[in-house]
Amino acid sequence: MNWLSYLLFILLVSCPASYTSDGKVQTNKSVSITYTGNMGVLISNDKTAVWIDGLHEYYGPEYLNPPDSILEKVFEKKDIFSRLQWLLFTHYHRDHFSAKLSKRFLQLFPAHKVIGAPQVIDSFSASHIINAWNKHGEILNDTASSLRIKAFNIPHTWPQRHTKVQNIAYLVELNGIRILHVGDADTDPGSFSFSQVDSIDVMIVPAWFLENENAKKIIEQLQAKKIIITHIAPGEKLKSSIGIKNTETILFYKISQSILL
Ligand SMILES: [Zn+2]
Predict the structure, then answer these.
(1) Residue 11 falls within a domain, yes or no?
(2) Which listed residue, 105, 119, 130, 222, has the most CB atoms within 10 A of its CB?
(3) DSSP strand E in the chain: where?
């Protein structure tokens, strides 16, 4: 063994690490966000994982849904899904939520929970749910895994048509990193003026936020450092940046794409 291979050996032994799809080294202190289709993202650290809008089925050619290769890993708790504990849903629309797949998950892992509004959680028994509707504040604090979740009601886009839809924005704090997922939110800046939500590290938004002046105001107001654009239809062409100084734009359009924080 020459000195270079010896050095590499020592590095490998002393720093157990894996690599994400964008080639970054994942260490034990990292938080990763991995795309699973439409607005689905898995947020994880070395102890736990939260999946927002993850389990949904085919709903038409404009919506990406998690393929069988992902579902197999979920139901066998493999790879990035090995630490999955919490299924969060922003609302019940079928491009975000499947009661059937969620039931299957809970049958396999009865200690885990589904978090959402009554339109989502009414499909499950009381021991399996956390109601996040009308909370406007903290719904979960698990110090063992450095996880806190806050929930805020926020109007669904096209409110005239979707007035009855209970849409929830989740603020997930993992290892102190603040990640806000807004679901199918409308772009009325007034809806985002809730307290406790500012200085966001990562904001996960639907595609219609990218070319909308009101959405730009919301993102500036929340001082989001990064925005991740989701809900992109396959083949849809979008501009690559929202054009806000100090805010990085990331487009999630490919299943398993991920970022490390
Ligand atoms: Zn919707």
Answers:
(1) no
(2) 105
(3) 18-19, 25-26, 32-37, 40-44, 49-52, 84-88, 113-116, 129-131, 137-142, 147-153, 168-174, 177-181, 202-206, 226-230, 248-251, 258-260
Centre of ligand 1 from the C-alpha of residue 90, in Å: 9
Ion ligand 1 residues within 5 Å by Cβ: 93, 184
Q: Facing residues of 202 across strands?
A: 179, 226
- pLDDT under 50 in the chain at which residues? 7-16
CATH code for the domain of 86: 3.60.15.10
Number of domains in the chain: 1
Q: What pLDDT is stored for residue 128 in this prediction? A: 96
pLDDT of residue 16: 44
In a domain, 176, yes or no: yes
Ligand 1 centre to CA of 96 (Å) is 7
- Integer-rounded Cα Rg, in Å, for the chain is 19
Which tokens belong to 83?
């630490």
For residue 196, the CA-to-ligand 1 centroid distance in Å is 25
Instruction: Give the structural domain span for 78.
Output: 28-253
Is 74 part of a structural domain of the chain? yes
Å from CA of 159 to ligand 1 middle = 11
pLDDT computed for residue 12 by the predictor? 47
In a domain, 134, yes or no: yes
Helical ranges in the chain per DSSP H: 3-14, 68-75, 99-108, 118-121, 159-162, 213-221
Q: What does the mean pLDDT of the chain come to?
A: 90
